[in-house]
Amino acid sequence: MKKLLFSLMCLAAAPVLTGCAGGETMYRSDADGTNGSSPSFAQFNDIPIPEKATMDLKSTLLLGGSSAWIGRLVFSAPYTLNAMFDFYMSEMPKFGWNEVTVVRSKVSVLSFTNGDRVATVQLEPDMVNGTVVSFTVSPRTKDKAKK
User: Where is 71: in which H helix or E strand?
Assistant: First the structure.
């Protein structure tokens, strides 16, 4: 009986343990959401969304769509904070965003501009979900002429 119980426990634990053993791989989302991202991310064709991300609908507030949206997009991704930081540092320029400033710490903050828009990406570790990503995108303030 003990052998049967032990065998069943090992069988149940095997998928969990093999899932943890692999390295972290992330891919930028496609506009049609076919790479495994949630279909709700399909409307964001101007920012990278990591694979397996899940949107936090309670914290997300968006206006507009396509590449003209503004607001706050919040989601969780099953990757470490360091992996997400590296992901956004490498992927944001591929979407036309230019780095403004970066703070890498327990709560990392990255700022980018793209034309007349500004994006701030806040990365926070989450013991359950990996990393919470908060994107805030807003119109860029026009420079006032100095007098």
Answer: strand 70-77
